Amino acid sequence: MQVTKEQVERAKSVDLVDYLMNRGYEINKTGNGYKIKVKDKFPGDLSSLSVFENRRGWKRWSNGTHGGDAISFLQNVMELSFQEAVLELSGSQVICMSAKAVYTSNTPFFQEKYLLLPESANENSKVYNYLNKERMIDDNIIRQMIADKKIYQDIRYNAVFVGLDEKQEPKFACIRGINSSISYKGDCNGSDKRYPFSIEGLNKSKLYVFEAPIDLLSHATMANHITHNPEAWKIHTRISLSGTSDVALESFLESHPDIKEIHFVLDNDASGQKAAENYCKKYAFFGYKTVNHILKTNDMNGELIAYITKSPPEHKKTNALKK
Length: 323
Hints:
Layout: H1 5-12, H2 16-22, E1 27-30, E2 33-36, E3 49-51, E4 58-60, E5 65-67, H3 70-76, H4 82-89, H5 108-111, H6 125-134, H7 139-147, E6 151-153, E7 159-164, E8 170-176, E9 185-187, E10 198-199, E11 206-210, H8 213-227, E12 237-240, H9 247-255, E13 261-264, H10 270-284, E14 289-292, H11 300-309
Parallel strand pairs: 11-12, 11-13, 13-14
Antiparallel strand pairs: 1-2, 2-3, 3-4, 4-5, 6-7, 7-8, 8-9, 10-12
Helix pairs in contact: 1-4, 3-4, 8-11
C-alpha cells in the first residue's frame, strides 16, 4: 500500500479525542488531558490511556507505550501498520475491523461496552403520536418498528431507537425527546455504533444512509407516498449513522457484501454535506457506486413534511459544493 505525503500530513493532524469518540468511546476531560470512560475495568482495557492536552499525544500507563499523534496510537495500540493507520486516518481506506485481532468483538478493546437501555414505559402512545402526527411517519412503519423492538417509549416519554446485532440483540440505542419545546437527543451509555438503527429491505444491493433514525423513517414514508403503495418502504435497505461518523457504515458493509450502491441522504448543512462528499469519494475508491442526494430542506424529515403538506421547502444555504 502506498501513501502520499499529503495523506501522512492529514493523518498526523487528526484529533485523537475526536477519532476515539467517533469510534464510539465516551471521553472525559481530566485535568490537562482526556481519559476513556470504562465502567467495568478488566486487564488489558484502555482505562490507563491518557490523551494529552493537545489532543494528539498519548500514553498508555499500563505498559508505558506512548506517541505524539493518532498514527502512533493506531500502530501501537490497534496493531495497524503505518500505511494502514495513515489510510484509516486520512479517510482514504475502509479498514476492515474484523481483519485485525485487536478490533474483533472477542478482544478487550470492545469488552467495555455494556448497553444500558432506558426503562420501557410498556406502552408507546406518546411516541407513536409524536412520530405519526408531528413527524408524519406512516402508521404501518411505526407499528412494525415497535413490533420489531426497534422503537419504544421510555418511562420519561422519550423515543428510543435501537440497533440490533445479527442475533437481534440490542447493541445500540439513541434517545430522542418528544417534547417539542425541549430538543434532546443522545446515544445511550454503552452503545456500539457498529450496530445502527436500520431497515433491511428486499433490495440487497442498494443502501440508503441517513444521520438520524427519524430521517430514515421519513425516507421510508416518502417511498409509500410517491408510489401510493403502503408496502413500498420494504424495498430498500436503510441505516442511520447517529451523526456523521461512518463507523456504522463500515461495519454494515462488511456484513452485507451484496451492497453495490451507497446513497447518502445526510443533512443539508455544512457538516452533513462535507461528510457526504468525503464518503462518496472514500467508498467510490473501494468500488461502490456512490450518490450524494442534496435535500431542498435541512433534513429528510423536513423534506417529507414539505411534500405531505404541499408547503414550499425552506432552502438552507450550505458551504458544500453542489453536484
